[in-house]
């Protein structure tokens, strides 16, 4: 009533409350789960656009940029998605005019598929991360890889090890992508023990300078 008397306009959708889950600037803030996430309608819209483009061999620059814009917004919540934006943007820059068509090759389709995976399973970001950074040394967490033998990692008293698959090692050497071998045990450690690192901000030390550069650039 006070706002009405003062002729101050209010949007009914912005005056909901008190609630523990509220959409603000296109993002749902949930104080029960202590997380921020993307609303379902936005998820569905992006997934529909992904399905539409995935069935095409070509699309217009405008169509691709529209989807990239949605993805860029989603990276506020889906942090890993940032690594899968640069190639799509590179594809969009292959032509000048918005109505020109760009080719959606294998690499672009893989990125689109990865984004669909993120949208369906990675939609949620903790609101309260620890303020200080810790290192993998502080956690007694170490990983390493040998190009000819295999890979392994330890986390306290837990550990894993394995031999390279022949096809995988041939791919890495053929592409001269040794950083891929170094990245693999880091990823495996995150899959196995990531639940123990909840809300922590961890610095990994790696002896492959190329991998350090790639990950920091991403």
UniProtKB/TrEMBL annotation:
InterPro entries xrefs: DNA/RNA_pol_sf, Hepadnavirus_pol/RT
Protein name, per record: Reverse transcriptase
Organism: Rotaria magnacalcarata
């Amino acid at each position: 009533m006070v706002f009405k008397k003062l002729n101050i306009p209010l949007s009914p959708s912005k005056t909901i409350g008190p609630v523990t889950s509220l959409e603000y600037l296109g993002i749902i803030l949930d104080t029960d789960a202590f997380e921020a996430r993307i609303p379902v309608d936005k998820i569905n819209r992006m997934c529909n656009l992904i399905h539409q483009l995935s069935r095409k061999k070509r699309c217009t620059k405008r169509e691709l940029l529209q989807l990239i814009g949605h993805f860029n917004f989603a990276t506020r919540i889906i942090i890993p998605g940032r690594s899968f934006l640069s190639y799509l943007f590179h594809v969009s820059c292959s032509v000048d005019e918005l109505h020109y068509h760009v080719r959606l090759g294998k690499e672009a389709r893989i990125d689109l598929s990865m984004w669909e995976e993120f949208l369906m399973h990675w939609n949620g970001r903790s609101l309260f991360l620890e303020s200080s950074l810790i290192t993998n040394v502080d956690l007694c967490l170490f990983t390493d890889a040998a190009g000819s033998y295999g890979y392994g990692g330890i986390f306290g008293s837990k550990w894993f090890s394995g031999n390279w698959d022949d096809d995988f090692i041939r791919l890495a050497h053929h592409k001269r992508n040794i950083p891929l071998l170094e990245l693999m045990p880091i990823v495996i450690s995150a899959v196995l023990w990531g639940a123990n690192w909840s809300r922590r901000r961890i610095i990994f030390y790696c002896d492959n300078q190329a991998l350090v550069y790639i990950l920091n650039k991403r």
